[in-house]
Specification:
The complex is a heterotrimer of chains A (about 160), B (about 475) and C (about 290). Chain A is mainly α and about 160 residues long. Chain A contains ten helices and no strands. In chain C, helix 3 crosses helix 5 and helix 10 crosses helix 11. The chains are: A mainly alpha (about 160), B alpha/beta (about 475), C alpha/beta (about 290).
């Protein structure tokens, strides 16, 4: 991520969207204390992942940088930062909202976009085929609905 | 009953937001309201004349003024109505400025109407009152013998008041006595406090109750009764020579509260060298009553049969100066406060006073020299979930103070201060902050999440930091 | 005690050991697990379309309410997702409206605030059954086994959803459940760390590194790791084997689901506990348990 950002690119509509979409999170209260960075297990491995920075960029309305970055997809949603954040910013919630906005604009990891199709076609993340059904039977496990229709209909909405 | 309602425009301060005419019209036809008028500047001579005239002409026996706060002119209005032959206590003062026009935009008129209507009902229910003179108690009770309580007591005494100073601990002094130096000037804290403590001990107007707590307070201003429970001291204050022979032979050791638990004390002990009252005290909760101290005392000052006392005091007013306490550690458990390498700021003050000023270095329990110390600022503050939502405003400056002191005594010590914002608000504080940076203290903008085995999981720095602070 | 059991997507096809053992210990403890036609909880597509995800969760909540039962989830992520959906749909009016718009358009149904109690399977054992009762039913005490628990993330966090039943900083309920079997639950650095499963689809290398960290801490120090979420299971079990092969080493940390451990202690036949599904060999721990 760049060290210098152009603040004139701040997008007011994006800020309004964020305000509308964020529920319990209080992004505006973030005072950059950094306890989220300090508590993040992903950051210990990937040092460029910086939730504090993402919060700051989002707060500044720098839509392009935020939505196009790989980093909003790296949060493992462990909620440790949410437990420790002193101002109820709830970074995982913010990540989810940012991800949704990015996905709507077509910018998302292909693996995740594919999951929606998988659910729309099969109603399950992992399909239940004949082998699986036989194995379940061998293990005396009850039958499960191989293709829950409601999932397919919901996931397939808008296609 | 004849009531007059007078609404002041206050030169726009009220009429700018409250529609005064509307308020007048809303009440002028109410029962017993003889007249309702709107004026400019009710407190001015012409304004007051309006009231005077109305009282005379309409034979008013109650008056309601809807204007600014009673703190401003209540007495003056009362004087005026009294001059015109009315009872001054049948004046009702309704605040439609500080409590209405100055704080609302929408709904101000409606609120003013409600306030005035409430005032009218009150006015109609008032009986005339006579002033009487009563004996007031002018003695003051000051709860808490820290620097605030001490200062209050001395100032009151200078003003001629008798003061009862009640302090929970066996000596006055409070937190300031525990500090090493003050910020930003690095004055010696006990040195500037103990003369004032000594004054308290000597002052004829101040009665000092130590080892005491206020258990009940009844009555009202000018007429309180306080019930104070004073714990048995076990040592006669006037006889004690402070020779220390008693504590030498005492078999019981417990953690010393003044030293924040870092060092031990005996069950019979001197709270600290500059203690006032200047005498030993027995901690009867831990005392084994072996009697060694009684035998050892050359002044026969020890009395193991001393009993708790209940003292009743007549008091006119009370000052509460009970000071502060540290946050419950449980809230900060992610920093593992039970770890021997994690201390709080008061403990650092005691370490500086006990170790560093004696020329020693800081070591762990095993004797290894401590080479680095990390401070976690805002621990439990600006954080409604784990503590309080406000900022204490003292942690930043006192941390810098400790850092500067530590660097002075132990130049090799690496000091890391993990901060969220450095709030250096007082005079000389910013220079103090610069001094710390110049002396090589590391400032890291980031709050650590937790600590494990002395390794800070901080925002940027992840090297070993065996000494810690909350 | 009857509960609607929520299996999610991963367990019924990929981690049947968890399902087998959970059903087996439930039966032994007199708990009835009722199946309903649940479907995906929505968690995997929450990053892409939160409304769709919440809609799926809402439907599952409706189905549970129809059965009139509390829901017990075997997967921590499912548990969190369902509990979060209940909260969000109650508090966030505009999201609830969007969800209902989708549901009525696609299914002709609406979510009307159904809020059955949703808890994790392990929490049910801890709170509703209790460690005392479990201890009393142990037939084969597992004393001598050193177990490292991996409570995972969504079991206790966010604590606003779990009602703080367990400490989000230092969770201990799973340890107490392990100790009820007679085994010893050990403490270790990084216990509260995340397995990384959540980002497996995005950055496999980072996820594997997160998993590897805990395995390296525990390798050679414990008899087994016990966990309660199939995603954590896949990371620490399947990927342990995979990474072991890649790095040409053996971490040697058998990974058991808690009901598998409990099943051993309750004297249930190991055949019924699905150990054949576990990737890393469990022979060592079974032997030590006296099986």
């Amino acid at each position: 991520m760049d060290a210098v950002v152009d603040i004139s690119k701040s997008d007011t509509r994006f800020l309004r969207t964020l305000d509308r979409e964020l529920g319990a999170s209080d992004l505006s209260k973030c005072f950059q204390c950094g306890v989220c960075v300090a508590s993040c297990p992903v950051r210990e491995i990937e040092e460029t992942f910086n939730p504090r920075r993402i919060m700051k960029l989002a707060k500044l309305g720098l839509k392009d940088i935020v939505l196009r970055s790989e980093f909003i997809w790296l949060c493992s949603m462990c909620f440790m930062c949410q437990e420790r954040c002193p101002q109820d910013v709830r970074p995982p919630e913010v990540m989810t909202v940012l991800r949704n906005i990015a996905a709507k604009e077509g910018v998302a990891p292909p693996n995740l976009l594919k999951l929606v199709d998988v659910l729309a076609e099969n109603g399950r993340v992992y399909p239940i085929d004949d082998f699986t059904e036989d194995e379940r039977d061998d293990r005396d496990l009850p039958e499960v609905e191989p293709q829950p229709e409601f999932v397919m209909k919901i996931a397939g909405a808008g296609k | 009953m004849a009531l007059g309602v007078f609404i002041c425009r206050c030169g726009g301060n009220i009429s700018g937001t409250v529609n005064c005419e509307e308020v007048r019209d809303a009440v002028k036809d109410m029962e017993r309201v003889t007249t309702a008028q709107v004026t400019d500047f009710l407190c001015s001579k012409p304004g007051l004349q309006v009231i005077r005239n109305a009282i005379q002409r309409r034979k008013l026996d109650r008056v309601l003024v809807a204007c600014c706060s009673p703190h401003m002119h209540e007495r003056m209005f009362q004087n005026v109505v009294e001059e015109e032959g009315m009872n001054r206590y049948q004046l009702v003062h309704v605040n439609v400025r500080e409590q209405c026009s100055w704080i609302h935009e929408k709904g101000a008129t409606e609120k003013a109407v409600n306030l005035v209507k409430g005032g009218i009902r009150r006015a109609l229910a008032l009986d005339p009152l006579e002033e009487k003179e009563v004996e007031l108690c002018r003695d003051v009770l000051v709860i808490g013998g820290g620097v605030a309580g001490i200062t209050a007591a001395l100032q009151l005494s200078e003003g001629g008041f008798k003061v009862n100073l009640v302090e929970r601990n066996p000596s006055i002094g409070g937190r300031m006595a525990q500090l090493s130096k003050t910020f930003p000037t690095l004055d010696c804290s006990p040195c500037i406090l103990s003369p004032r403590m000594a004054e308290v001990g000597n002052d004829k107007n101040i009665t000092l109750y130590t080892g005491a707590e206020v258990v009940d307070l009844t009555g009202g201003p000018g007429n309180y009764k306080a019930l104070v429970k004073q714990k048995a001291r076990g040592v006669d204050i006037d006889k004690c020579l402070k020779c220390a022979r008693c504590s030498t032979v005492c078999p019981t050791e417990v953690p010393n509260e003044f030293e924040e638990g870092l060092y031990p004390r005996k069950a019979i002990y001197l709270p600290f060298p500059q203690a006032v009252p200047s005498a030993y005290v027995i901690d009867f909760e831990n005392c084994q009553r072996c009697g060694n101290c009684v035998e050892a005392c050359p002044a026969k000052a020890v009395n193991l049969d001393d009993e708790d006392k209940m003292i009743e005091l007549d008091i006119g007013s009370v000052i509460v100066a009970t000071g502060f306490d540290l946050i419950d550690e449980e809230k900060l458990r992610s920093y593992r406060p039970e770890h021997p390498g994690v201390v709080n700021a008061l403990q650092v003050e005691r370490l500086i006073e006990n170790e560093l000023t004696e020329g020693k270095v800081l070591t762990t329990k095993d004797g290894d020299r401590i080479k680095s110390i990390a401070y976690v600022l805002c621990a439990g503050s600006r954080d409604p979930h784990r503590g309080v939502s406000y900022c204490s405003a003292v942690c930043c400056p006192y941390t810098i103070k400790q850092a500067v002191l530590l660097k002075k005594y132990l130049p090799y010590l690496k000091i890391y201060i993990y901060y969220t914002d450095m709030r250096m608000i007082g005079r000389g504080f910013e220079d103090f902050y610069r001094e710390a940076r110049e002396k090589g203290v590391f400032f890291i903008h980031g709050r650590p999440g937790d600590q494990e085995r002395g390794r800070a999981r901080g925002a940027l720095v992840r090297d070993g930091a065996p000494g810690w602070r909350r | 005690m009857r509960y609607a059991v929520f299996l999610g997507c991963t367990i019924p096809s990929r981690q049947m050991n968890y399902e087998q053992s959970a059903r087996a210990v439930s039966e032994a403890l007199g708990i009835e697990l009722v199946d309903a036609d649940f479907g995906c909880c929505g968690f995997p597509i929450e990053p892409i379309d939160e409304v769709k995800a919440l809609s799926m969760a809402a439907m599952n909540l409706k189905k549970a309410q129809e059965k009139g039962l509390d829901v017990v989830a075997l997967c921590s992520a499912c548990g969190e997702m369902l509990a979060k959906a209940e909260e969000t749909l109650e508090k966030d009016e505009s999201t609830a409206k969007n969800v209902n718009r989708l549901l009525s358009k696609q299914l002709g149904l609406e979510y009307s605030g159904e809020r059955p109690r949703v808890i994790h399977f392990a929490r049910m054992l801890y709170e509703d059954v209790g460690t005392e009762r479990i201890r009393s039913m142990v037939k084969r005490p597992l004393g001598g086994l050193k177990i490292a628990t991996h409570p995972g993330c969504h079991y206790v966090r966010p604590s606003t959803l779990s009602g703080g039943f367990d400490d989000p900083e230092f969770p201990h309920s799973l340890d107490e459940l392990v100790e009820a079997t007679g085994a010893e639950a050990v403490d270790y650095v990084g216990k509260e760390d995340c397995c990384g499963g959540g980002i497996l689809a995005v950055r496999e290398d980072v996820a594997k590194a997160m998993t590897r960290k805990k395995l390296e801490t525990l390798s050679g120090k414990v008899d087994a790791m016990v966990l309660i979420c199939p995603f954590c299971g896949i990371m620490y079990d399947r990927y342990q084997k995979l990474m072991g092969a890649e790095m040409e080493k053996e971490f040697g940390v058998p990974v058991l689901y808690y009901p598998q451990l409990l099943g051993l202690a309750l004297g249930i036949d190991p055949e019924e506990l699905g150990f054949d599904v576990n990737s890393v060999s469990v022979d060592g721990v079974l032997e030590k348990a006296g099986v």
